[in-house]
Design goal:
By secondary structure, the protein is mainly alpha-helical. The chain is built from 9 helices and 3 strands, in the order H-E-H-H-E-E-H-H-H-H-H-H. Helix 1 packs across helix 3 (56-68).
């Protein structure tokens, strides 16, 4: 399925006067993560380039960057598509998450910790749940894990996890019951936040490890059943 601008006209102002392929890639990465371009969607050069007001060469470079990040895949004579993950990709994403996120909590040092961003993400998730906005809950959950990793104060770790979590959203978008997928983790996010507020880093690490193991098992089970009955995944 092709696409036109996908609502990107409103993002044009973000490019400013110094438009670059990296800025275009950042906008498209965010749009993919938010589900505006679901897995399997063909990205239209004319539609997106026109919406953002960038040249074909700039857009192709942005596509190349996102292909390198495994968010897009180029198919010869067909175009560029948002990638559809294989089950093994989901397993690998969780392996990386476990290594990075648990290490961040393990190495936090002595309390108190700077938890305002984490608390905002927890509140955002709970607020969206009360409104029945489960896509919003999913987004808030991603924000929670970004803020958790940001506690390390490492730009390299932040950059790594931005890509990993954007890939993870590709799997989330295939799931047909986001309520069932995300609701159990609202409470668990708050439990991790409360443990860190209490200065109980070891407890928070234990809770996080169990959380990621359970989340992986649940998502892999649901995702495997979905992709088995869908078209063969691209990428």
């Amino acid at each position: 399925m092709g696409t036109t601008g996908g609502g990107l006209h409103e993002d044009r102002a973000l490019l400013g006067r110094t438009s670059t392929a990296e800025r275009v890639a950042d906008i498209l990465r965010t749009r993919i993560a938010e589900g505006y371009f679901p897995p399997g969607t063909r990205l239209s050069e004319d539609g997106i380039g026109g919406a953002l007001g960038v040249s074909r060469n700039t857009l192709r470079e942005a596509f190349r960057l996102l292909t390198h990040e495994r968010l897009l895949v180029h198919e010869l004579n067909r175009g560029v598509f948002v990638r559809v993950l294989a089950v093994d990709d989901v397993v690998d994403i969780y392996r990386i998450r476990h290594l990075v996120e648990c290490a961040v909590v393990h190495d936090l040092g002595d309390p108190p910790f700077a938890l305002d961003g984490l608390a905002d993400a927890v509140a955002e998730g709970e607020r969206n749940a009360r409104a029945g906005d489960w896509k919003g809950v999913s987004t808030a959950n991603i924000h929670f894990h970004r803020e958790l990793v940001a506690l390390a104060g490492s730009e390299r770790t932040d950059e790594l996890m931005r890509g990993v979590l954007a890939e993870l959203r590709l799997a989330f978008h295939v799931v047909d019951d986001p309520h069932a997928l995300h609701e159990p983790y609202l409470t668990r996010n708050r439990e991790i936040l409360d443990a860190l507020r209490a200065g109980e880093r070891t407890t928070a690490e234990r809770l996080l490890g169990a959380y990621l193991d359970d989340s992986r098992a649940q998502l892999v089970d649901v995702y495997a059943r979905r992709v088995t009955h869908a078209d063969p995944p691209r990428g």
